[in-house]
Amino acid sequence: MxxxxxxxxxxEVCDRPRQIEAAIAPLFEPFTVNGLTLPNRIxxxxxxxxxxxxxxxxxxxxxxxxxxxxxxxxLVTSEATPVPHPAAAHAPTYxxxxxxGPLSVWGRVPAAVQGAGGKYMQQLFHVGGLRRAGDLPHxxxxxxxxxxxxxxxxxxxxxxxxxxxxxxxSELADVVTAFGQAAADAQRLGCDGVNLHAAHxxxxxxxxxxxxxxxxxGHGRAHPTRLAEEVVREVRRRVGPAFPIFLRISQWKQQDYxxxxxxxxKALEAFLRPLIDAxxxxxxxxxxxxxxxxFQGSDLNxxxxxxxxxxxxxxxxGSVGLDRDLFEAGVRRPEADDxxxxxxxxxxxxxxxxxxxxxVAMLERSDFDLVAVGRALISNPNWANDIRxxxxxxxxxxxxxxLASLE
Length: 407
Ligand SMILES: Cc1cc2nc3c(=O)[nH]c(=O)nc-3n(C[C@H](O)[C@H](O)[C@H](O)COP(=O)(O)O)c2cc1C
Hints:
The protein is 30% helix and 15% strand. The protein is an alpha/beta fold and 407 residues long. It has a single domain (5-333, 340-404), classed as TIM Barrel (Alpha-Beta Barrel). Residues 45-48, 79-80, 123, 197, 199-200, 248, 286, 317-320, 322, 326, 344, 347, 373-376, 403 line the site of flavin mononucleotide (FMN).
């Protein structure tokens, strides 16, 4: 990304800032999707921060998201927020996207982000079968899942366990309605679009994944996209044609990092078509390392393949600007102190800054349209402006302790 000292020696006057800006210029081109023009290609990835009490987000969220827009991010995405359904969350620290209290905070975020120069989307989700009996905030609500199965955390090697019963058709219809309601609220509260979470092993993804979907009915393995299609169609019905709908998808699951829904491009192509017909405007393709080829015989990543197979815009994500992926065993810097370590599951402790050359080259080649950045933006609210200015010395490594505050 930045010009090397050798490059500088070759020019009579070393204009380093201008060279840097030229090298990463593709990241700062505007992009339009379904009528929404984003000022650049950098998006803040959805990241659950769990600064909420009884489902109401901390007031500090408003400034937290606006700070990333002021720091140059073109599209800010909220953390995953549960839709209005009693079994949508499995902990009270999730910030609900329903109810007067939570919406009074979430409702202030879009204008704050837009006032700082960015666009804003709400991520909507339902945890499905990740719920255990008695989980807050609604301990009596039965989990909604394809087949009543719960997959233990990665690495335990245990087969799926029973965690309830398969959801009934009327329970699934309630979930669909809940997504539609949340999307309508997002539009009413000034969001620029919604990001529907169908990745990482949450409810919509549980239906896509044969390990957890053993149903034989219309929502079963013969038609695994059906629930996601119904959700997208209902959201589209509620928000109208001119409101962007992003769908987040992934091969990996939090229950199994090595899971794969699509072993070859044909399977991926068949998966995409009904979702596009239902109303998806852009696929947010979640991977842990953006540079990993998705299928043999090509260096395209998941976002690259989705765009090639469907012609629909895509967003990439995964270790952009960082040298370690989300779950890679973090090697702490020797001088790092042992500050409070929030409970963040298998998340690695530490990831250092890395070159942007490769992601920019892939963007320039039109592999994908947007580039989402996660952890680097937690540690560096001004990341986008800093990389644009070549101020790489100002960019901090990601350390898990940074999650302890909503800076
Ligand atoms: C603390 C944390 C919370 C996350 N929460 C969410 C979430 O709420 N929704 C989601 O789709 N992904 C979530 N992710 C995944 C990120 O959106 C992103 O895909 C991942 O961190 C990889 O990007 P990165 O390598 O740039 O961090 C989370 C990641 C982190 C680090």
